[in-house]
Amino acid sequence: MTDAKASIDDDFAFIERYDAELAAGRKYEVIDEMGRSHGIFDLALFDMTTDHFRVRMEDMAAKFKTKDGKPDPKIKELTEDEMKLKGFVEICVNDWSGVKNKAGKEMPFTKERAFAYLNHPKGAFAMQKVLAFASDLKNYQPKGQDELPEGN
Fold first, then answer.
1. Domain count, the chain
2. Among candidates 120, 86, 81, which has minimal Cα distance to 101?
3. Is 145 part of a structural domain of the chain?
4. 53 inside domain
5. For the chain, percent of residues with pLDDT exceeding 90
6. Which residue segment(s) compose the domain that 121 sits in?
7. How far apart are CA 69 and CA 115, in angstroms?
């Protein structure tokens, strides 16, 4: 980069659309209409403009290739909706707590378990809630800012 370009770029007053630290992961408890918890999810902001999103996309592309660089054949077995959900889980779902098995014991978090839980018909409620939370920029605002920046 030339010095002239650097000085021009330095003149912009960019608006911070979200808190970068929060965008990497924020806790959200899924609670149903009866007040029951479906778990606490650590969710990254689902927004293609974040550094976190771009890094996770690169990680995901590498993860779903075979050693010779070809696409993993298991990916081709997924429906379009399952592919989208797998992408969401890989990019945004960092961890969970309070998700239990049939015996009432907490299930340890893995990306595979998160996909299975959110992809299950009985997990659809939680899926809708975590997707809505992770997609809402208002949930990742800088501390002390209650509304979106003007113009967004």
1. 1
2. 120
3. no
4. yes
5. 50
6. 3-140
7. 24
Residue 18 has a pLDDT of 86
Tokens of 15: 């608006």
Give domain status of residue 147, yes or no.
no
- Residue type for 148, please? L
Element (H, E) at 94: strand 93-97
The answer to the question of residue 24 being in a domain is yes
Residue pLDDT, tens place only, 60-112 = 777 766 677 776 667 678 788 888 899 899 999 999 999 999 999 999 999 99
- Cα distance between residue 44 and residue 53, in whole Å: 8
- 45: Cα within 13 Å, side-chain hemisphere: 22
CA distance 32 to 37: 7
Q: Order the strands of the 93-97 sheet from edge to edge.
A: 26-31, 37-43, 93-97
Strand partners, 95: 42
Q: How far apart are CA 85 and CA 38, in angstroms?
A: 18
Apex 44 CA angle, 20 and 120, nearest 5:
175
Contact indicator for 100, 106 with CB cutoff of 8 Å: yes
Pairwise CA distance, residues 96 & 111, whole Å: 10
